């Protein structure tokens, strides 16, 4: 009788060890990135990293402000494009289209969510960049191109999560509202969307995370000049591209400065996630 | 406030409906355009030869055989490591513990890990596997980095799959005198299998499409990898280099088409598995 019990304990302990893998990996990643990035930030001063505008690694000038601004700008742009289109599509497909249309289109959209980001970047380079260059002037490789490509890239994520959360709103809510004489749109705006809010916010957060963390697609269309962009048509470099562009040949302090870029990216993402989770939780409690 | 006209809400509804229709069309047309362009330009490049010969002259000529092999190796290692860890975590969270501090920490870890961008995984893999552990740019370094990246996906999907196994199954198993482990392995896991498989297949898709985490850990050597310690170039990395360095647009389209078709097939399998899983777990 003692043996199964002893076995059970052994299994429980080994499973606990396995279960701690995710948090351990998170800890190891954090430690490694910070261990590599912090010393150089301490040496040259955090302020110079965060507010310096000049990135000349060969001259020991490691200002990351253009890349911080670049990342935030491009992510905001992506949300401005992806969120309205995504929400509109989700609302249309759940509330205004026939069941057959949404039954066909939802899987199609979900299938598209697996397309690798490099593919989006490539098509941006082939079609969008020349189009913007010819229509609006400038080099084409720009804040605008990067925002549009990222906005399209996060569309499937936002659409499919929004559809799920709108569908999860019980039909009785809709019936109640319609019975009070509300039109379909009034019902959607005043009843369905507020009820689905926490799911919608979650979808947007996920899209935001994908946009700010994206690297290869952005490199292809953003132009990557390490200057503060003067307009939407100016080239821009994000934190992620800064790392990817120079990692292959960087060494010494230059490489450490790229890890410092990673540290800042890491911290920005953690702050955004924290804020987003906080608002999502607040809203779902209401 | 605005109750002067009875007709107004209806007119508003019409306008909104047209607006939503247009926006939806834009979104869907753009997505379909992407797919159509890749297939239109890529499919003519595809042939048995393209799939079975190695790239030559930096990829300007030849096929993509070695990149397909590298992709498969990397994905295989990633899942070999991530699946037991992920499923084990899910079993612990659902079957071996109730909500406590430890579970909260574990879930927090998985959630944060899911939010980390792939380039950070790349940096980390480069320092730990390539430099410190001296695996060099290799299939092993790349595979392990990908494993860490897909782990949260496998944990989440497995946990949901295990949670949705009806409690009655477990009770029946316990009442027959089985131990907890027997119940988990003989009853719970088999009925959660399609759900777990969904997570695994999704992770395969992510591994195949990943570039940033792989390029700094597996490297970009074009030859056929001879062991897990040799460097290799995955399809995504190959496509990225072909396109970004302007080496050959036709070959880039061809590679993209193979990538996209592979991922579409994987997503279709996921869909099929999910359908199976839902039909099994939903009440008759």
Indicate the multimeric state: heterodimer
Please estimate the helix content of chain B: over 70%
Report the major sheet of chain B: 2 strands, antiparallel
Given this structure, which CATH class of the largest domain in chain B is correct? Mainly Alpha
- Strand % of chain A is under 5%
Round the Cα radius of gyration of chain A to an integer and report it: 23 Å
- The CATH level-2 architecture of chain A is identified as Orthogonal Bundle
In the CATH scheme, the class of chain A would be: Mainly Alpha
**Apparent shape of chain B:** globular
How far apart are the termini of chain A?
52 Å
- List SSEs of chain B in N-to-C order: HHEEHHHHHHHHH
CATH superfamily placement of chain A: MetI-like
Reported by name, the CATH topology of chain A is MetI-like fold
Written overview of the protein:
The complex is a heterodimer of chains A (286) and B (284). Chain A is an all-alpha fold and 286 residues long. Chain A has a single domain, classed as MetI-like (MetI-like fold). Chain A contains 12 helices and 2 strands. Chain A has a two-stranded antiparallel ribbon with strand order 1-2. In chain A, helix 5 (99-112) crosses helix 7 (143-167) and helix 6 crosses helix 7 (143-167). Chain A is globular and about 70 Å long. By secondary structure, chain B is an all-alpha fold. Chain B has 2 domains: 8-45; 48-281, MetI-like (MetI-like fold, Orthogonal Bundle). In chain B, strand 1 and strand 2 (61-62) form a beta hairpin. The longest helix of chain B is centred in the first third of the chain and has 35 residues, at 8-42. The relative contact order of chain B is 0.15. The model of chain B has no long low-confidence stretch (mean pLDDT 89). Chains A and B meet through helix 1, helix 2, helix 4, helix 5 and helix 6 of A and helix 1, helix 3, helix 4, helix 5 and helix 6 of B.
